[in-house]
Design brief:
The complex is a heterodimer of chains A (277) and B (312). Chain A is 79% helix and 0% strand. Chain A is mainly alpha-helical. Chain B is an alpha/beta fold. In chain B, 37% of the residues are buried. The chains are: A mainly alpha (277), B alpha/beta (312). At the A-B interface, α1 and α5 of A face α2 and α3 of B.
Chain lengths: 277, 312
C-alpha cells in the first residue's frame, strides 16, 4: 500500500511539475467562465444567464476535452518508463506490478479530479459572485454531479491510457493509438450509431437496443448523466431525441461510468502482470 | 546460508532463441564474484533471473536461500541491490528526489538518500536535475540507489562501462568496502583485465553456457596457461633464439622488437628459465607476466562453439 501511494504521489507531482495539471485546471476554469458568459450570445445577450444551459454546453465540451487530456497525460506512463529504462530499475525493487500500475492510475486520475474540482469549482464560485440569480444550492448540486461524472470520465480514459501504455512497445505507437482511440470514441462511435439508425429507419428492435448501445461508450454515458439530469429545454433536445426519450436511471448511469473507470484499468493490470520485464 | 545465489540447471528461451542453456552457478556468501563473458553471452539474462524479473524456462534459482518467484520473491528484492547496465533515471528530477522516491519504494531509512549522496560524492549535485549529470555521476547515482536499504547481495551489471580510470578505481574501492562488511557482490563485465584483481571467484559465460567457474587462481591453474617472460637485450637478439635450453623450456617464442623477445613457459619451468636468463650476458631487463583471466577467457571463449541462436 505504501508503495502504491509513493508511486501515485510521484505521478501526481510529475504532472504538476511539467505544468500539465496547472494548464488543465486553468483550461477548465476558462472554459466554464467563457461558456457561462458568452453561452447566450446567439440569442443576442452576453452575461451569466441560465446555469442549466452552462452545464449543458460544458458537458458537450468536456466530452471532447476530458478524454483527450486523460489520454495525453497517461499514455506514456508505462511505455515511457519502459523505453527510458527506468521500468527495469523499478521492477527490481520490492514493488509488485499491480502496485506500480495502480499507483500510476491513481496518481493521474487524481490530477484530473483535482483539475476538475478546482477548475470548474472556481468558475462556479466566480459565476455566483457576479450573478445573484445563480446563487443557489441547486447550482452547486448540478455542478457537483458534473464534476463527479467528469472525474469518472477522466479516470476511465486514464485506465484506457494505461491499457495502451502496457500493451505497446514504443512511445510513438502508444501516442498514435491514444489519438485513434479518442477519435474513435468521440467522433466515429456516435456517427456509426447514427448511420445505422438512419439506414435502417429505426425498427422496433433497434429502438429498444439503441439506448443500451450508448452505454458502450463512456463519453455517451457521461453525456447522458448530465443531460438527462437537466431534462429538456437546455439546448440538448437533439441528443435526448437520439435515444428515443429512453428514461435512464441516474444510479445505473453512474454505475456504468464507474465500471468504465475500473474495467480498462483492470485489463491493463492483467496485461502488465503477464509480461516479462 | 553458504551460498547467496544457487543456480541449478537453468535454461531460458526468448522466442525460439535460447539465451541460457543448462547453467549451473554458485555465488558463495560474502565473496566478490565476477560474471564474465562477451556481449550477448547471457550475463544480463542471468542477473534478471536472479532478480526474479524474468522466469526461467526450466531449472531453479535460489537467492539468499529463498525462491525468487511471487510475493516472497518480491520481499526478497528488499535485500538485494541492483545496478542495471546503462542505468536510467528520471531526468526531470534531481538526484536527491530520485533517491528519495526509490528509498520509499525500497523501504529504506529516510536519512539514507542524503547519506549515500554524500558518500558517493554527489552531495554538490544533489539538487541538480539528473539530465545534467555526466555519465560518471549517473553511474554513481546508480550505485547509491543499489545501496539503499543496506542489501546483503549486490548485483552490478557492467558497472565500469564508460567510466574513467578514477571512477573505476573508486568503484572497486567501494566493492572492497562491501566485501569487508560481509556482503556478497556479483559483478558482470566483458572487460576482464580490470576486474580480475578484485575477484574471489569467477563464472565465465559464453553463448548461453557456463564455460568455467571457480576461484581465479584455480581456474588459471586448471587451464595450464603459460607464463610469459619478456626479455630485453642490450643489442641484437640473434644467437639467443638458437640456444638449446630455450627450445627445451619455452613452449613459444615471439620477437617483439629488435631487442625484445617474449617467451611462453609452463608454470613449473618458470624459475629454471629465469636462472638461465640471469646467466645470459647481454640481458638488460626481464618482465614476468602471469597468465590473466582475460587470456583464459579468450582461450575458453574460442574453444567452445556456443548454443546462442540455435533453434530447438
Amino acid at each position: 500500500m505504501n508503495s502504491v501511494l509513493a508511486v501515485a504521489g510521484k505521478e501526481f507531482r510529475d504532472d504538476f511539475r511539467n505544468r500539465w495539471a496547472i494548464a488543465i485546471t486553468l483550461l477548465f476554469a476558462v472554459l466554464a467562465l467563457g461558456i457561462a458568459y458568452f453561452g447566450a450570445a446567439t440569442s443576442g445577450r452576453v452575461g451569466f444567464t441560465s446555469f442549466d444551459a452552462t452545464i449543458a454546453s460544458l458537458t458537450t465540451l468536456a466530452a471532447f476535452v476530458v478524454p483527450l487530456i486523460s489520454l495525453l497525460i497517461a499514455y506514456d506512463t508505462v511505455v515511457g518508463e519502459r523505453s527510458s529504462g527506468t521500468l527495469l530499475l523499478l521492477l527490481s525493487y520490492p514493488l509488485s506490478r499491480t502496485a506500480l500500475a495502480t499507483g500510476k492510475y491513481l496518481g493521474h486520475s487524481l490530477v484530473l479530479v483535482v483539475a476538475t474540482v478546482v477548475g470548474f469549482g472556481a468558475a462556479v464560485a466566480v459565476i455566483q459572485l457576479l450573478s445573484p440569480a445563480a446563487r443557489s444550492l441547486t447550482a452547486w448540486v448540478d455542478m457537483g454531479g458534473f464534476m463527479l461524472s467528469a472525474s469518472l470520465l477522466g479516470a476511465s480514459f486514464v485506465g484506457v491510457a494505461c491499457l495502451i501504455s502496457v500493451a505497446t512497445r514504443d512511445k510513438s505507437r502508444a501516442a498514435g493509438l491514444a489519438l485513434l482511440t479518442w477519435f474513435g470514441l468521440v467522433v466515429l462511435f456516435d456517427l456509426l450509431l447514427l448511420a445505422v439508425l438512419v439506414a435502417s429507419g429505426g425498427n422496433a428492435v433497434e429502438r429498444a437496443v439503441y439506448p443500451y448501445l450508448l452505454l458502450l461508450n463512456p463519453i455517451d454515458v457521461f453525456r447522458l448523466v448530465n443531460l438527462s439530469a437537466l431534462g429538456g429545454g437546455a439546448g440538448n433536445e437533439m441528443f435526448l431525441a437520439m435515444n428515443g426519450g429512453h428514461a435512464y436511471n441516474a444510479v445505473i448511469l453512474y454505475a456504468v461510468l464507474l465500471a468504465w473507470a475500473v474495467g480498462p484499468f483492470a485489463l491493463a493490470l492483467l496485461t502488465f502482470r503477464r509480461q516479462e520485464v | 546460508m553458504p551460498n547467496a545465489i544457487e543456480i541449478q540447471d537453468i535454461s531460458k528461451r526468448f522466442g525460439p532463441a535460447w539465451a541460457l542453456e543448462h547453467v549451473d552457478a554458485l555465488v558463495p556468501s560474502g565473496q566478490v564474484v565476477g560474471l564474465l563473458g562477451h556481449n550477448g553471452a547471457g550475463k544480463s539474462t542471468l542477473i534478471k533471473l536472479v532478480l526474479g524479473l524474468i522466469e526461467p524456462t526450466s531449472g531453479t534459482v535460489r537467492v539468499l536461500g529463498a525462491s525468487t518467484a511471487g510475493a516472497p520473491g518480491r520481499r526478497l528484492r528488499a535485500r538485494v541491490g541492483y545496478l542495471p547496465e546503462n542505468v536510467a533515471f528520471y531526468g526531470n528530477l534531481s538526484g536527491r528526489e530520485v533517491l528519495r522516491y526509490l528509498a520509499l519504494l525500497k523501504g529504506a531509512g529516510a536519512d539514507q538518500p542524503d547519506e549515500f549522496l554524500e558518500r558517493l560524492g554527489l552531495a554538490h549535485a544533489a539538487d541538480r536535475r539528473v539530465h545534467t549529470y555526466s555519465k560518471g555521476m549517473r553511474q554513481r547515482l546508480g550505485l547509491a540507489q543499489a545501496l539503499l536499504g543496506d542489501p546483503e547481495l549486490l548485483l552490478f551489471d557492467e558497472p565500469t562501462a564508460g567510466l574513467d580510470p578514477m571512477a573505476t578505481m573508486d568503484f572497486f574501492e567501494l566493492v572492497g568496502r562491501l566485501r569487508a562488511q560481509g556482503r556478497t557482490v556479483l559483478i558482470s563485465s566483458h572487460v576482464l583485465a580490470e576486474l580480475e584483481p578484485h575477484l574471489d571467484r569467477a563464472v565465465i559465460l559464453g553463448h548461453g553456457e557456463v564455460l568455467g567457474q571457480g576461484t581465479v587462481a584455480g581456474m588459471r591453474e586448471a587451464a595450464g596457461l603459460p607464463t610469459t617472460i619478456a626479455v630485453r637485450f642490450a643489442g641484437a637478439i640473434n644467437g639467443f633464439l638458437h640456444e638449446d635450453w630455450l627450445s627445451r623450456l619455452a613452449v613459444g617464442t615471439r620477437v617483439r622488437e629488435p631487442q625484445v623477445v617474449e617467451l611462453d613457459v609452463r608454470p613449473g619451468d618458470k624459475m629454471a628459465v629465469v636462472r638461465r636468463l640471469m646467466e645470459t650476458s647481454s640481458l638488460v631487463d626481464i618482465e614476468v607476466k602471469e597468465p590473466t583471466l582475460a587470456r583464459l577467457h579468450a582461450t575458453v571463449g574460442t574453444e567452445h562453439t556456443g548454443a546462442a541462436g540455435r533453434q530447438k
